[in-house]
Amino acid sequence: MARGRKGIPHTDVLVTLMGSPHGSDMVTSVLRLVEEMLRQDAAVQVWACGYATMLTQEGLGESKPRNLANWSGDYPSTLTVIRGMLAAHPGRLHWYGCRFCSDERGAVAHIPEVRLRAPSAFAENVAAADKTLFVGVL
After folding, report:
1. Per-residue pLDDT tens digits for 47-80
2. What is the DSSP string of 8-36?
3. Main-chain dihedrals φ then ψ at residue 70, nearest 5 degrees
4. Is this model's pTM higher than 0.70 or not?
5. Of 48, 71, 76, 104, which is least surrounded by CB within 10 A?
């Protein structure tokens, strides 16, 4: 896979995820979309911006808090889902976080697989992708 300026790999799609991760089904929909694109052999990069930068925080742990409707159930956190997707698709899935949005929200303990970039570098990610999809609040 060819790398552009600043080491951004060329991808088929850049998904820009903005806004609150738990205000709607947006995150679940994006993760399913990314998973399906990867299943179809696409190369994908995700740029998390705004509160979506919270999705890859080490503090989330491996599981979500217990569900009162299913106390014995164990549900993976977004951290676990994203980490698993990155591990299953090395070189085809790249996860970026907006450094400004992360710092602004105190989201400074990302998993090592996440690359933080300045918002001014976003155009380089767009240029490295054939298509860009914005999901969330603009």
Report:
1. 999 889 988 888 776 766 666 777 777 777 888 8
2. PBPEEEEEEEES-TTSSSHHHHHHHHHHH
3. -145, 75
4. yes
5. 71
